[in-house]
Amino acid sequence: MEISGIFTALVIGLIIGALGRLVLPGRQQIGFWLTLLIGVVAALLGTFVAAIFGVADTAGIDWIELALQVAFAAGGVAAVDGIRGGRGRRAIER
Questions:
Q1: Greater confidence, 89 or 70?
Q2: Burial 15-30 (b: 16+ CB within 10 A, else e)
Q3: Computed from CA positions of residues 12, 16, 21, 22, in that sequence, does the dihedral angle turn out positive or negative?
Q4: The whole model's pTM is what?
């Protein structure tokens, strides 16, 4: 993979990770780098699943692929936030 491909994957991962955080209610207690990592993994996973269903390459914007990527990112952010005790810890502290 070339440097431009890596840079593109990071930018897309950041956008997908941010969109995943936006669709979740409340505040998540995970950092920027973890959001980026979740976004990159979600983007790759969403592309893979879209290819399996045959909707990865469509005319125009691939809305189904984007929706899958954001859904995976939201699920990843929620899972990591839950594992790290984000919601549980705040509820106990109150």
A1: 70
A2: bbbbbbbeeeeeebeb
A3: positive
A4: 0.77
